[in-house]
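Why does residue order matter? Because the sequence determines the fold. Keep that principle in mind as you read this record.
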Amino acid sequence: MTNNIPKEKRIALPVILSGALVLSACSNNTLNHTEGHDMSTTGSHEQQKHMSASADPKFEVLTGNTFTLTAKESMLMLDNNTMKTAWTFNGTVPGPQLRVKQGETIQVKLNNELPEPVTIHWHGLPVPNHMDGIPGVTQNAVKPGESFTYQFTVDVPGTYWYHSHQDSVNQVDKGLYGSIVVEPKESRPVDHDYTIVLDEWMEDDSMAEMHNSTHSNADMSKMNHGHMNHGTDTNNTMMDMSKMSDAEMMPLMYTIFSANGRTGAAIKPVSVKEGDKVRIRLINAGYLSHKLHLPGHQFRIVSTDGQPIHNPPVINEQLLNIAPGERYDIEFVANHPGKWLLDEHSTFPGAKSLAIPIVYEGFEHASPQSDHAGEMPLVDITKYGEAAKSIFSLDDKYDWQYTLELGTDMKNGTFTINGKAFPDTPPLDVKEGDLVKVKLVNKSPEDIHPMHLHGHFFQVLSKNGKPVSGSPLIKDTLNILPGEEYVVAFKADNPGHWMFHCHDLGHASKGMVTEVKYDGFKPDFTVDPTVNNKPE
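Structure:
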């Protein structure tokens, strides 16, 4: 490793929505907001941390090419009345944003101060296999009190995120995640560049461990949802959940929705001035899909999973659905002064707790405007944007063609691929340079499966037998509803053993995982049986 890479420069919140705040149990401090164009840094080789005079905790944006992320337990105040014991990177949920330049080689040192092993997976980034952060597959998880340094070159610009992949069904659920933005060499300037990480939380944390360790309907029947105050059990009697699907249970369990670690009225605003061009990077780190509505403004989806949309048209009065693991960047011109709410339009019990204020200068004390009247259509991303020359087509000759049928085994409480649960699922065997076509079919009666491929991007070629008619659609996470069928293609250009799994992490932990395995590849580590590696 080189020794001449300067340490990161830390700056107070310039481009992140300042909603993430971790406080001690006795603290009532609030978080100041810093605008996107005040991005000044000082110092050259030493880490710089710029705090306001009040010394309030900050959601940090770290720049440079050498970083330190410390996994530790902290207290999270979702609002003034709701405190959670969270697992964090550097003490906040989400953890710091790493903001890096395309083409640079970065180093990230992970220090583990938690009582369990952890890793970092770089979700969406095509890193070398030994940097992918998968315990027992690409590395041993980092034991308590130990460290591991990740090093890789960030070649592909876009919006990504990082999270632990050790026992991720529990560790990500506790808050062990953050964002990473790779800035392109040539970028389109905007006046504000915000990142909003979405998540969900249980009102009663005692249910989380039961859910994440079992994730089966039989055990879920033991839960009394009368404690959850969502109105589904007015008699406060024991609900029989044994007949519920996972899709039915999850919204009843996770009833607090958050944006950057805050919920409801505690969510910090997106501050704008009339005439500003605004970019919002949306990342879903949770279990549930979120249907978002931006009232009063037209907007464009400029990228999905960090990859650009060709000639995106203006959207008005449509809902943007963002599934677990997905990212969408939207842009709009602030041309309608007032106070507006970018809010959730699902029927989930927690929907009303997710409303992000967009506040124009001079309207800080105005009443917020929203519109929950009537049904609005969802944007179909396979028909969005303008067609253009693409990498793959349905008629290309492929070296391998696979079909993955995604299913729910209600009897055994597992989620399957081609009838098998991991580690018994057959892998996708490839050779370097192969062109691979995969048909993904959701056979589950009710469960949604956002499928995520590590180490590669894939192009979506068709949906339900119809070719993609909009922009070439390049993704790493694809949301598949019950009964839907997609065909995707990718080039095997990154040797290794790569996970291909559902990013409803409960589904992955109960079997919905396979691997893309390159012929002849051998991992560069030896499995340590004392670590207790848990890849999902």
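The chain has five helices and 33 strands.
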